[in-house]
Each structure stands twice: as C-alpha cells, then as structure tokens.
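Example 3.2
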Amino acid sequence: MLGSVLLGIATLLGLIYGFLVSNFGHWRRRGVLEPRALPLFGSFPSVIWPRQHFTIDMQDIYMRYRETNSYVGCFLLRAPKLLILEPRLVSEIFVSGFRHFEDNDASHMVDTSKDRLIARNPFVLQGDDWRRERAIFSTLLTNGRIRTLHSIMKRVCGDLCDFLAKDTTGGGPHDGTDLGLRFTGETLFDCVLGIQARSFSKDPLPLIRQNQEMSSENIGLTIAGAVSGLFPNLPRRFRPKVFPRSYDRFMGGVIGEALRLRRSSPQDRNDFINHLLELQKEHNLSEEDMISHAMTFMFDGLDTTSTSIAHCLLLVSYQVGMGLGMYL
C-alpha cells in the first residue's frame, strides 16, 4: 500500500515537473541563445520569490549578454519571451516595425467579455481589433490637447507642493506611492473627465481609495499574470476576471455621470471628454465603448506613472539627504 502511494506521488511530481519544463528548449530549437531557466521560476525568479524586483532579473540577463548578443530567449514562468538587448532593434520594433507587434502579455491575460471596462483598450487587444481601436484612440493625443493637459498638470503640481508644505510640519515620513497616486488620480480625473477629485484635501473623492485598492490589492491581476505565465496558450474564455466588480461599478458610474454632465452642460474646452463625444457620433460608439475608451486613458496612466513618481521622490530625497550629510 505504502509503495503504491509513494509511486503515485512520484508519478504526480514527475508529471508536474515535466509540465513546468515542457517549453524549455523553445528558443534553442529556433537557433536563439537560451540562458538556463528554472522550473516554475523561469528566467525571472523574483516573480515567484520576491527577493528583488523582477526587472532586476531582466537587468542581470541584459548585462551578461549585451556585448555578445542582440537578443536572448527567456521564460516568464513557462511562457517563452524574447528579450531584446540591442538598442537599434528596440527602436525598430517600436517605430518602423511596430505594426507587427500588436500582441503583448496583457492581451493574453484579459478576457474582454469579463472585463468590459477595458474592452476597448488597445493594450489588451490583438490583430485587427488592436489596429482599429488604436486608430481611434491615437486621435485623442493632438498637440493642442496635450497643451491643455500641461496647464492642468501645472495646477496639480502646485496643489501637490501645497499639500507637502502643510503636511510636513510634523516632520513625519511620506508615502511616495500614495503621493504618486494622488497626483496621477487628480491629473487624470481633470484631464479625462473635467472633474477635480480633491485628491490633496481632507475630503477627497473615493477615487483615491479605489486607486489604492486597484494598485496594491488587486488579486485578480496577480492570478491573471500567474495563469498567463503557466498556461500561455490558454483560451481567453478560461482566464480570470482582472478588475474587482466594485471598481467596475465605481469607475463606470463616475465616467458615465461625467459624460452625462458634459452633454447637459457643454463646455468649449479642448479636452478628452469633448473629443470622445465627437468620436461617438463619428464611429457610432455605444455608452459602454465610451466608458472603456475613457478608462483606457485613466488606467494606462495610473499605476505606471505613480510608481515612477514614487521612485523619483525617493531618488530626490536620497540626493538631498546626501547633500545635507556633506554640508553637516
């Protein structure tokens, strides 16, 4: 009996191991250098075992092979990924060859039938759907509209400085990620919806809490990333929902209300929401499409920008601290 149990366990472990390494050799068979990867961990162990940010794992591979190779084959868990090392190739992919690279990791993680909030986001679409929605969305980013956004950002920068001046009287530490989320939330709400979220007041709109939950407590996004890495060929219909339903209801309601208010009280303002209303007539967009397009701008600029701001604040504080140390 015990022998049968041990044999069953050994067989199961063997099958799991075989599954985890089944994609290894994908790049070697195509004549591409494939650095050694680990079962389950792949080429970026910090995705599973967070001893450092997984981008540092990428940097280690880059530094090891940048002088000898233009690219190497890697694995995100067990999903094959090509890591480009040569700047000339990176430029070619992003500029002249960009039309051939419409698919990305996010497009394999999201089931747009479940996450309707970002169903029109080019970042999660593939093929002709990607080309069509990108063509619609790219018309929003004109020079005139960017100038309008710049003036809004200057106002938000002033609000951030005032907030820091008032909040530093006690001498306590600041949460850089929180400051970044407040800044991006305030900027995006005003730029996209024409609404001031009062992010730096004592009574902000619930946007701040929703953004924090979406940024730091999104279990769905974590699960979707793991599923995409372990089962890269899994059909979309089996992928989990990424956005919490509470976030769907909140953001969908706020964007829908902003659209209703702008229709009832038109403003001569060269901003995102006015252009979106024009696009609705031109492309016969549904209300759900409108909400999704607005959410594209807000979601894509939220977490990445706030994280960049947090790191900039950390570096600035480090430099200031070093300067004060040398002065003292």
